[in-house]
Amino acid sequence: MMGYENQGYEEAHLYASKEQMASIVLADDFSPPSDGSKSFPDDPLSSSQFVDIPTNDTDPLQPSPSKQALNPSPSTIHSILDPPSYAEAVFRSFDFDSVDSGDMNGQDGSALASPSSSSYYLKISVSDPQRELEQSASLVPGGSSYFTYLITTFTNMPEFSGTEFNVRRRFKDVVALSDRLAESYRGYFIPLRPDKSVVESQVMQKNEFVEQRRAALEKYLRRLAAHPVIRKSEELRVFLEASGKMTLVRTTDVASRMLDGAARLPKQLLGGKSLDGGASNMSEVTQPTKGGRDLLRIFKELKQSVANDWGGAKPPIVEDDKEFFEKKAKLQDFEQQLINVSQQAESLVKAQQDIGETMGQLGLAFVKLTKFETEEAIYDSQRACAADMKNVATAAVKASRLYRELNAQTVKHLDKLHEYLGMMLAVNNAFSDRSSAFLTVQTLLSDLSSLHSRIEKLEAASSKIFGGDSSRIRKIEELRETVRVTEEAKTCAIREYERVKENNRNELERLDKERHDDFVNMLKGFIVNQAGYAEKMASVWETVAEETSGYAKK
Amino acid sequence: MITTINEQQKSGSALLVGSPRSPSSQSPYLMVSVSDPAKMGNGVQAYISYKVTTKTNFPEYDGPEKIVIRRYSDFVWLRDRLFEKYKGVFIPPLPEKNTVEKFRFGAEFIEMRRQALDVFVNRVALHHELQQSEDLRIFLQADEQTMERARSQETGIFLKKPADLMQIFKGVQSKVSDVVLGKEKPAEESDPEYEKLKNYIFQLEDHLAEAQKHAHRLVKRHRELGQSLSDFGKAVKLLGNCEENPLGNAFSDLGTKSEILSTKLQREAHHLLMNFEEPLKDYIRAVQSIKATIAERANAFRQNCELAEAIKFKEIDMNKLRITRSEKLGEAQHEYEELKADGAEATRRFEKIVKLMNEEIIRFQEQKTLDMGLAFHEFAKGQADLANGIACAWRSLLPKLEACSS
Fold first, then answer.
1. pTM of the model
2. How many CA atoms lie within 13 A of B143 on its CB side?
3. Which of A127, B17, B212, B265 has the most beta carbons within 10 angstroms of its beta carbon?
């Protein structure tokens, strides 16, 4: 796993000196942020005890100049992949006019957004975490508890049986959903679910953890809803719609059954009747993910993959989809560069934060100096100096605020990079699906070839005995039957493999298109933002330069 | 009186005393500049020498122009001599000795020092009292050997030991600790306005120090931001290689622009250092020079008081002797006359200092307003130019980017 440790851009909660600034005030017309976002405490506008600065430029960033960009940075990668919160609907930023309206407000910031064709919406929100006690007797005496979350859905999609749903789900259910989707949608770029993060019950009680999980769940579900194929899935529908305990059907893929017990297969293939009470189509709540049934298959495929890598013989077939491998290599390179840019972007944000902070502190120092000079002034020259200082101090404080806002926006735009990093994980999963599907085919082919050679040997041995060898003949018959069944399995496996390949292909196309659009918007947003704030800063400083132009060297 | 000080001081070129620009042979002028720093010597003993050029028509000075080579300790010698001779005047400050950075002799450091030395010498040359100084003439005119001799002669006598300075300052700030340590509280002025001035000076230094600290950090931040932008630009370019054109090109352009802006930021950092932080440091040094003058005044005051007391005691003595018709009366009277002369001298010295300080403080405030005004202007202008440059660079990327989305 790539170790994206703590890549969330730090919260734009930047300036310790903000509190200091609150007490020494320059009255100007920035209005305080009204969304209560915790990064920006109220602007120090209230008490203008000190100096009245009649600035006549209204800040075009009003009404709400500073919008929070990020969640607090938890350490799990999935939470870090969260898109920023949605104050931008209100925020009148510089990039408002240059960005397609579909991007900012529409799709909850997920990396692969806007199922463009449909006008169907699927809006999900997660709220109201509540503690519930474990019903059944658990191994741990004293009864454990867990949290459930209220999942509210609004939709007009025809797949759903209504337009509004409210269900309660716990994290285990989300894990089940994720697992089922992984099984059913092999080859798709499925958004990753939040980490399980094994926690002790004490940690569970902390509000922060629960809140983080709630937010993470919401992001995850919204991403699912944004995926053009998965949003229509049965699994998601059941998860969102079905009241009471959630049941998600577990399908067992045919090839897997092949490899376990060929004997059992024919009836399953032909009649669809369940043979043993176990692996069947009607199962109850969550089954253990890897039961005994799968072990044999895992073992066989492992053997095959070892044979592929280290065995002297050439593997039965080799993937020859050159185009795909080129694409894959390109994507790996892309991922590398993405990591790199993401890291540099983080440094950039830090540097912007630092310069803004220092500018603010400088302004503050000059504010104090101005106050001092004004109080102690005896000579006119002192008063003139104090007046100049005041202008500089004001400008510096304003510039500092502008840096802070610039940074909040920068974080928001560059966050796209982060999202695509998360996307790459999903891509890698999809490629793994393909590899494992292929491995299954290879394994079956190996099986077939070893069956054939056994038959050959038996036939050769049996032909030497006059009149036939009835036991051997019987054996040969059994083997032929197995061969027949395995052939059918092989056909299934190949079909599955092709299906996964097709899914990969489609998803790659989708990724390319959406990545292109997303990146164009990201660049535009970033650039317009930087330019806009630079212009504002220029204007602030030009005023001071003008006011002090009398001192300039001729 | 001194007129158009400001521009002249900073540029280090045409300085006129009491008349408009163009020097004519009639009106007296004294123009000085410090230039061409050159590294001399090797290793631990290495130092920087500067070319000091004097253009003047002062009668005591040689020829219309003279060039001498001086080093930092020569400037220190001059400053110390002026401080001794012209008590009451705020002697222009020198840049710090900075023994550590000296070893590295970075180009920026040398340039800052040269600039500060140039400012120093010009201020001396412009000061109506200081410009008359014989020591100044020696500094500006004497050959290197004479200079070296003068320098090594004087260091022993006039260099104040740190302990002495500390004692003086303690007296000035009238700390209770003096009483605690068992020292007699030295006599002090009780002029409330002067008290106010002293407090002002001390507090001013603190405020300025803080402002300068942040100015220094701001320079650093510009450099850091420049560096991150450069790194960011490089990474963005590489990412652009993964994308098809025209998006790939857009990334590439973004990367290039980032690198350009990085250069702008480095330039602005330098500009801030020389034109904003350095004037602030200069302001602080000037305030420290004032503190030294304050200490001198306290000294003079104390001497004056001590003598006044000694005279009083002598009078009492003499009266005693008169009554007893002692032979020592004559001697005592002689001593008394001497004491009175000394007392008058001390009083005169003290009063001169007071008078000078009153003039100096006005001059200082005016000068500072001009100096800081210029520094603020440079700061604001630098920031404005930088910001405009940044905005321009970013905006130039947009047309191509627009083409991508269509």
1. 0.74
2. 1
3. B265
Mean predicted confidence (pLDDT) in A509-536: 93
Q: Test B232 with A330 for CB contact under 8 angstroms.
A: no
Pairing of the two strands B65-71 and B47-56: antiparallel
CB pairs under 8 A between A and B: 199
* CATH 3.30.1520.10, chain B: domain bounds: 1-159
Cα A428 from chain centre: 14
Give pairs for A131-139: CB < 8 Å, separation 24+.
Answer: A132/A170
Least confident residue range of A65-74, A350-359, B344-353: A65-74
Q: Is A16 on the interface with B (CB under 8 A)?
A: no
Give yes or no for a contact between A16 and A39, defined as CB atoms under 8 angstroms apart.
no
Nearest to A190 by CA among A106, A78, A75: A78
Give the class (CATH, top level) of B164-406: mainly alpha
Return residues 300-359 of A near B (CB < 8 Å): 330, 333-334, 337-338, 340-341, 343-345, 347-348, 350-352, 354-355, 358-359
Token readout for A521 is 């918007």
Q: What is the pLDDT of residues B363-376, one digit of tens each?
A: 999 999 999 999 99
CB atoms within 10 A of CB A253: 16
Q: Find the residue in A nearest to B363 (Cα).
A: A381
Number of Cβ atoms within 10 Å of the Cβ of A184: 18
Q: Residue A402: its chain B contacts at CB < 8 A?
A: none
For the ranges A350-359, B99-108, B172-181, the lowest mean pLDDT is seen at B172-181
The DSSP bridge pattern shows strands A26-27 and A51-52 to be parallel
Q: Which residue type occupies B337?
A: E
- By Cβ distance, the residue of B235, B244, B390 closest to A341 is B235
Across the interface, do B373 and A355 touch by the CB < 8 Å criterion?
Answer: no
Strand pairing class (A145-155; B30-40): unpaired
ipTM: 0.83
List % helix, strand, coil for chain A (3-state, nearest 5). Answer: 60, 5, 35
**CATH 3.30.1520.10 for domain B1-159:** yes
**Nearest residue of B to residue A344, measured between CA atoms:** B232
A308 pLDDT higher than 80:
no
pLDDT digit string (tens) for B292-322? Answer: 999 999 999 999 998 988 888 888 888 888 8
Please check the confidence at residue B227 and state whether its pLDDT lies above 50: yes
Minimum-distance CB partner of A369 among B211, B374, B390: B211
- CATH 1.20.1270.60 in chain B is located at 164-406
Largest CA distance in chain B: 119
Which residue does chain B place closest to A519, by CA atoms? B247
Query: How does residue A203 score in pLDDT terms, banded at 50, 70 and 90?
Result: low
CB A426 within 8 A of CB A357: no
**Tokens 């504010």, located at residue:** A367
DSSP-based three-state secondary structure for B213: helix
Instruction: Please compute, for residue B194, the number of CA atoms within 13 A of its CA located in the half-sphere on the CB side.
Output: 19
Q: Which residue of A has its CA nearest to B252?
A: A523
- The CA distance from B259 to B275, in Å, is 24
Contact A385 B373 (CB under 8 A): yes
Q: C-alpha distances in angstroms, B257 versus A485, A527, B233, B238, B391?
A: 64, 11, 7, 14, 11
Please judge whether B369 and A385 are an interchain contact, meaning their C-beta atoms are less than 8 angstroms apart: yes
- Chain B touched by A385 (CB under 8 Å): yes
Please list the alpha-helical segments (H only) found in A229-291: 234-241, 254-260, 265-271
Domains of chain A by range and CATH?
122-131+144-232 (3.30.1520.10), 327-551 (1.20.1270.60)
Q: What is the pLDDT of residue A440?
A: 87
Q: In what order do the strands lie in the sheet with A122-133?
A: A122-133, A145-155, A164-170
